Amino acid sequence: MDFHAGDIEGVVWKPLKKFNDQRGWLCELFRDDDLAPEFNPVMAYISMTEPGVARGPHEHVDQADYFCFLGPSSFKVYLWDARKGAKTFGAKQVDVVGVDKPMALIVPAGVVHAYKNVGKEQGIVFNCPNRLYKGWNRKGWLASKLDAPGLPPAAGVDEIRHEEEGQSLYRLD
Fold first, then answer.
1. Would you list the DSSP string of the chain?
2. How far is the C-alpha of 129 from the C-alpha of 21, rounded, in Å?
3. Could you tell me the pLDDT band of residue 133, with boundaries at 50, 70 and 90?
4. pLDDT tens, position by position, 47-90
């Protein structure tokens, strides 16, 4: 499959504004009154990525990610619409966000995504997904989704990883 440049339906890019004063700065990452209910966060985590390192590409079956890129580094973000039946199926988006372009990014389920720290220092990313990691009480996302608590922990995490695929369609430059 060949991907083409274009916007992806359901992906939301939201510039983040830093409010500066003599003490430093403050930035609102999300507000309940500024977010579609289906993307309301149910948890939050922070990650640090070393310069030159990528996370992804991967996708989720049911989870939407709400990433916040503020710095201190910059990240090249890659998105591929792999949702068969979506109006924008086959579209690819790439942008650089972070310290010079603070951005929140909502990635809906089924959109393959990756990001790479393209700066010279460690980079911090916040994520506030709309599903719990490993599901309720970490019993596996599938068990939570199907209300079947007897499923084994192998149901695990809602993540389809493409990083290790030798001939992956999802390539970072």
1. ---EE---TT-EEEE--EEEETTEEEE----GGGS-GGG--S--EEEEE-TT-EEEEEE-SS--EEEEE--SSEEEEEEEE--TT-TTTTEEEEEEEETTB-EEEEE-TTEEEEEEE-SSS-EEEEE--SS-TTSGGGS-HHHHHHT-TTS-GGG--S-EE-TT-TT-S----
2. 30
3. confident
4. 999 999 999 999 998 899 999 999 999 999 999 999 999 999 99
Choose among 110, 109, 79: nearest CA to 13.
Answer: 79
Kindly compute the dihedral angle of the four CA atoms of residues 113, 124, 71, 122, in this order, to the nearest 10 degrees. Answer: -110
Query: With contact defined as beta carbons under 8 Å apart, do 123 and 71 qualify?
Result: yes
Question: Is pTM beyond 0.85 here?
Answer: yes
- Widest pairwise Cα distance in the chain: 54
What phi and psi values does residue 163 have, to the nearest 5 degrees? -60, -40
d(CA 14, CA 6): 17
How much is the mean pLDDT over the chain?
Answer: 89
